[in-house]
Every structure is written in C-alpha cells, then in structure tokens.
Predict the 3D structure of the following.
Amino acid sequence: MSEFPFADPFFGLSWLDAIIRIVIVVLVMTLVVVYLTYGERKVVARFQMRLGPTRTGPIGLLQGFADAIKLLIKEDVRPRNADRWVFEFAPYLTFIPVFLVLVALPFAQDWGVRNLALGMFFVFAVLGLNIVGVLMAGLGSGNKYALLGGVRAAAQMISYEIPLVVALLAVAMVAGTLDLNAIVGMQDSRPFILIQPLAFVIFFTAMLSELHRAPFDIPVAESEIVGGYFVEYSGIRWSMFQLAEYASLWAFSIFGSAIFLGGWAFPFGEDWGWGWQLVLTLIKSLIMIMLIFWVRATLPRLRMDQLMSFCWKALIEVSFALLLVNGLFLYYDWPEPILAAVNWVGAILFLGGIYLRAARKPSTKNLVGSYKHAEVPNP
Amino acid sequence: MTTEVLWWIFAVAIVAVSAGVVFARTVIHSAIFLILSLAGVGAMYLFLTIEFIALVQFLIYGGAVTVLILLALMLTRMGIAGRPEPTTGVQAPFGALVAAGLMATLIGVAVSTAWPGDLGQNAVAVSIENIGEQMFQNFGAPFMITAALLLVAFIGAIVIARQEDED
C-alpha cells in the first residue's frame, strides 16, 4: 500500500517504518496517560483546596504507576448474566479507534505515524467508531446502570458529533484542505483560533461531550448511575477503558491544538527544527488539557434534557450558520480580517448568551419526560 | 501479491461475519456482526484506493449501527443481555420469500448490467477535490434534491416521534 506518502521511512521499508513509529507513539501515549491521571487528580485537587496524591514518590509522581500495577494484579471479574463475548470485546472496541487516531496526528512537521491527505476526515471517521464499544459495554454487562450509561453515551455522542464535524469543516473551508500537516503549516503567522474563534468554541464544547468530560459526564455520572457503562468491569479491562478515555483526551487535545492553536507551526514555523516543534505540540496540547480540567473543576453536571436541547437547539444551528458565513466570505473573496471580526462577534454573542442563560433562574416550563415536575429553588 | 492475500482474508472474513448477522440468536449480536461486516467492506474500499468512501463507510455506519442497536433495544422484547430470543414466527415464510426475491433481483442485476471496462491492475487514486467537484458542481442538483428529501424525512420522523403532552 504505497498511496500514503510519508516523510523519511526508517531503513527504507515502509511496513517496518510504520511499526517503529507506531511503537514510539504508543509508548509515549502510555506514559502520557499515566501522567494525565496523576495530573488530573493534582489539578482538580488544587482547584478544591486539597493536595491530591503526595505519598508515592516525590510529590506523588509515581502514583500512576502504583495504580497501574494495582489494576494489573486485580481479579478480572465477569458477572454471571453478562453477555460473554460482547462484554469481553467491548474494551478493545473502545480502545482501537483512539489508537487509530494517533496514526494521523501531526506531532512535528511531516512527523506523525502517517501523513494522510484526508487526515481530518480520518480522525472524525475513526473516532465515531468509539460509540460502538461503549454501547457494547453497556449492553453486555447485564446491568441496568451500565445499560443506562451506554444508551446515554450513544445518544450524546451521536448528537454532538454533528456540531463537532461541522465546526471543523468550517475551519477546513478556510484552510482549503483536509491534510492536517498542511493545515498546521498554514498557521505559522497566525493560529486559526484568531480567525475562527466561534468554531473553536463549538469544537471545544462538542469535544467535552465526546470525551464524556464534565459538564457533559452524564454517561458516567457517579452520583446517578454509579459509573455508567463500565460499572461491571474491573482490573485490566477497566484500565483499558481508562486508558482509552485519557488517550482520547490527549489525542483530541493534539488534534484541536493542531487545527486551532497552530500545532507545531505557530510561532516559529519551520525554522527551529523538529525538536522545538515537538515541544510546541506538547505545550499546546497541555494548554487544551488544562482547559478541560479547569472546566471540569468549575462547572456542575448538566441534566440529560439540557444536554440534548443544547446540542440540537443551539450548537447545531450556530455551527451551520458558521459554515454558511464562511462559505459567503470564501465565495466572494472578502478579506480575512473581516471574516475574523464577524467570527469574533459570533463567538462573543454565543458565549454571552450561554452565560446569561446560565445566570438567570432556569425555566421549569416545557420540560419533558421525568423532568416535567422538576422544582427549581430560588437562587 | 500482498494486497491479493489481504483481499482474500478480508473477503472470507466479510462472508463469515455476514453469516453471523443472519444466524446470531439475538438482535444485539446481529448488529455487532453487521458493523464488523460493514467495516470489512470499508477495508475493501481501501484496497480500491478510494480512501474517502472507506472513511465515509466508517463514519456513517458507525453511527447508523449504534442507532440500529438502540432501536432494536427499544422495539424488541429483549430481556437480560445475551439471552437468546425467538427470531422466527408466522411471518418467517414471507420473510424468506422477500429475501429470496431480493437476492434473485440483485444477482440478476449484477449479471445483466454491462459494467464499464476493467481498470486493470493499477486502480487510480481519486482525489478529494475531484469528488467535491463532481458532487457539488457537476451533480449539484441531484445532491440538493437528495438533501431536501432527507430533510423532509427527518422532519417527518421528528413530528411522528414527538410526544405531545396530554396529561
């Protein structure tokens, strides 16, 4: 298969080169995941005026490894009424899509596992498969809470995939390509977040939802459905869900920082070599991850009906409007600063609208289903 | 050579999981086999070097099969996960008739159509620009008519499924 171009194959063998790159990326990913779990506990602890892990190693730095060893030696339990094959394969099906996404990410100039001409589209397509694993876990566990979690996750992920894809397509229209490396290369003087802030806002919101992060952690809500679709898993299989969750957090952050924050290109371009580019990619992905943790520590969880109506009544409309506006600007060749200005106005209006909506007392009229009789206390 | 071996492996796998769709005892298992089968077809598109169609296959059917599972969950009497349920009833002979008729039609069409000439050993890579131009310029009107049709079906589905508050 030689249709995928790549920069400089090791030893001139494309399959050996692919294997070596995959192994490097996966090893780095595992290390990143171990430290992301540590980092999340530490950051969220600080937000809540606690210390977080401190005992294992200096300032708790080895906590992740201790947890990993504990999970590996834990017993792998399968409930008797679980659907055996569905239950056992579900963790792999949640993990494989994330693993595939890593293939297309640009870590430095022309340095990913593979540089695909349809890179952005590949990322959407593959991430969409994640839902199947989650739903299989929910259905196969033979547990009502797991089933509820799986069904919630499916509804949420299918809905939020639409604004995510449309917002990214709006950026791809401005960039004129779907090749992630080319998109990053265009941003050496200005990152796309300056031109397309509204797309960034939509992308970030939809990303939180796709990742099941707070305030959209409804499928895994501990206080409502005790952990959601992976409630019956333990030991190594549970840790695969955890690995998939944090790996997709990292993959999404690199993907988002490549598209909106300029990835390896901004602000030094090609001049400073691939070492700096790697550092830039990591710093930008850490900024995204920090934002996600910050949101998690700040906002309370939404209700299921709020979640769905926010997606279908706000995000999708705004993202289609954005697509239309970008199309007009590109068709008539109007200058980029005006496009940026219109987008900034849109982003500020949208965020302001969300803020005002959140600040006033929520309406209890027109609620559906079991929320019909919800009482809202006065603030 | 390598491609050919891989092609045969995938071909056998697709037939096997497609048989699984038919013979699985529960709807959920059928749906899971179905997504494996569709993913195998996606891999076939990769062998034909049309990555775009392969990715569309993954993107669309990943979500579609999930919705199918949800519908199966809501519309069938599914007990605890994994328990087999009767999948035949009085309608079985009619189902067999429809299936046989569809298969006969498909085979008849496939055999009787005059397919354009073989592309030869080297399939041509189709660029995304080319696809976009064909879809939005040369075939713009059918594309928009399809979009309008889907929109009407979508709104209709919402209207039918909407729960009116009566109590």
Q: What stands out?
A: Chain B has a mean pLDDT of 80. Chain B touches chain A at residues 3, 26, 28-29, 32, 35, 39, 46, 49, 51-52, 55-56, 58-59, 62-63, 65-67, 69-70, 73, 80-82, 125, 127-128, 163, 165 (CB under 8 Å).
